[in-house]
């Protein structure tokens, strides 16, 4: 053989060998996820990579803020879809195209806003937080995950763990209130509920912590506005729930719309790369919020869409939701060297990792089950009812107006929320349908059947000036033993792009409540809202006042059980109710002030209307002395605190003990009190239960500086429980 022939032979042999060893590792379920990711990435063209980092929408749009023309032809190469259809058949058809017609057969990741339920709708997250019951919150997510996965959704854009302290911001309804720890605990419970222990299991979906980070600080509570957050506040308040969610195993994170003191969250390398990946070790994917990459131009940090794409992906934003900026620009950006292919590879790697973790390569299709086998099972409805009942907060109960006494024979049930279905679901109702909802009227009629007659008159609308039914309503009230008024907010008054300058109900509702109270009959006001309400216009007229939030599909039944006393209210506020919007910001864990008793408004009371943690019960709980097992502790040691709580009333009930810590002197001033632990227990009437908190100095007594470094400083600390306060020292 001459040299040329030998060379040719060698080449052919090498190619043959390469062919033999070209085992498609990524198709092997037994191979490690990282090996599968690398193998697949190594086979992808630039175009395929760019398609992986792209998300389009599919299906009917229900979000008024995100109007987008429906995607008619789904590319089989698309990385992800915002999947709004509920049809398993459509889903299988689209997925089959991706798996069987695309060159590499990469399945599509389908995401959807399953915020508080998919078809069975649970209370809004703010209400869920008021239950202080992580097990029920987790269960609601488990139910939602099952209904979603059976309909082709593998990924929810939930939970939202934005610590929200301005009730004017409509999105307070979507998170877990004003406290970082409570947001973190509920967020972690949600993550575990959605994802379970194994993302490949039937009925598990990937969770998404959002909006990373600082979105709730929108200036003046105006949605989408600029946010000013100091590095210290970022670390103290905004970041902790995200860190807890990452530790709980959240598969994905969504970047926020807002900019953080000038650097938009979607182009923020510090938050998305240095903190999230560098400090916390997160290896899942980060998706943008809707159109957020494109919006970098509007936010003034990118001259055009190409620059927006370059900034976002280099900062660590892996997937572009809907605006198509990545798809249009990334190939050219990589080819010209403005964006390194390594950066794109890393984004693709993170997306593929989530797809492998979800088991999509092994199980891309779903069983085409009819609706009744997917949704609204008896168990799902029961879980929704239980969580709704525990989320409701009894704010006032003069002379034991509630529960409804046995001699009540006629109840006048009125107000715009009484016979309403859609608004009881709140914003982001997933695939919930109004027809599934039990109205308050239906719930109360069923609960009191054979005991009391229910007279329904709507009486007034949510707003406007129509008083034409006032007289008829007053007559019904006069003829009743008890008047129940169902007032509140329409579902589109909170949620995204739903900021309100005033927290009061419209004048017509306040007037109606006062008119009904004038009849002299005992009045119960049920408030259904997506935010704290300025109750000055209704509270004086109400003998009993209950915040029922937007309680979801089983809302009416839950309300009825609370009224009858079948359920003893156990909800406690996860957010402070200010007296009025002008009193804001008002939240319990403020930093210590130079003159704590001065500097108050001259023309408004200082105390909020109802503080964080507030909520009444039909029974009374008596707290024994707060005991510590030691007065000093060293690093590495634990201190155990205990308190015994007795149900001194006649009705069984649940009590939540909230444990707060304060650190009066530190190198960086700490808040007046911080929630560090909570526990809810059932206590039968006449019995006692012990509640415990084991203090771990590193976890509970340390705090971050403005770079996130945790400081643990010796000195005095105080433990606070229900008005009691005891001192201990770290030495
Ligand atoms: C919202 C997100 C949501 C996304 C997708 C955005 O407008 O801010 O919370 O997940 O739309 O619907």
What distinguishing features does this structure have?
Immunoglobulin-like; TIM Barrel; binds beta-D-glucopyranose; 17% strand; 3 domains; 5-stranded parallel β-sheet; alpha/beta; 6-stranded mixed β-sheet; 731 residues; Rossmann fold
Description:
The radius of gyration is 28 Å and the shape is globular. By secondary structure, it is α/β, with parallel strands linked by helices. The strands form 7 sheets. A 6-stranded mixed beta sheet has the order 11-16-15-14-12-13, with helices on both faces. A 5-stranded parallel beta sheet has the order 4-3-2-1-10. Strands 19-27-26-21-22 form a 5-stranded mixed beta sheet. It has 21 helices and 27 strands. Residues 63, 65-66, 113, 157, 210, 289-290, 496 line the site of beta-D-glucopyranose (BGC).
